[in-house]
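User: New here, please read:
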Amino acid sequence: MAKIFVITYSTYGHINTLAESIVKGLEKGGVDVSRYQIAETLSEDVLEKMHAPPKTDIPIITTDDLLKADGFLFGFPTRFGSLPAQVKAFFDSTGGVWKDKALVGKPAGFFYSTGSQHGGQEATVFSTMPFLAHHGIVYVPLGYTSPHLLDNSELVGGSAWGAGTMANGDGSRQPTEKELAIAETQGEGFAKIAKKLAA
């Protein structure tokens, strides 16, 4: 059975909420799923000033852990239209597995959260493409596989690049049912492709 890691960095919990639906979709797609989180680099003092809740007890991912998976779905919030420094620091630590070409051909996808509708959801994913290209990782986008992505009757996060949500600047908006459904669709679709690549 293909083994997929869902790897998140979540400051206020929105990404972890989306991840639950991603996992549900992956399991429907018939793959083995493990959850990891990216290590925090901010001090407790800074996190307290940000009113960030305590981190979950999800295991911290290491570069060696990446070798055990057949594919990855990464979830994280945007920071000024790009990936957070914590995620960049993790990607920057993968030089050893890059040297060994250990991730070539493995699939990866992304899901994300922004503070506002125009906070850079697609740009955030776009900023990760060099990491995938240098490792030879196969990018698997969501595409327009969910009808909710074409729904203009209300605010709906996500795009062809991956599932997403808007948190508001103060974190008060939570993922909606439609956004969670999009995340589940992404997980299920990713599982099908990952199984083919792992076969």
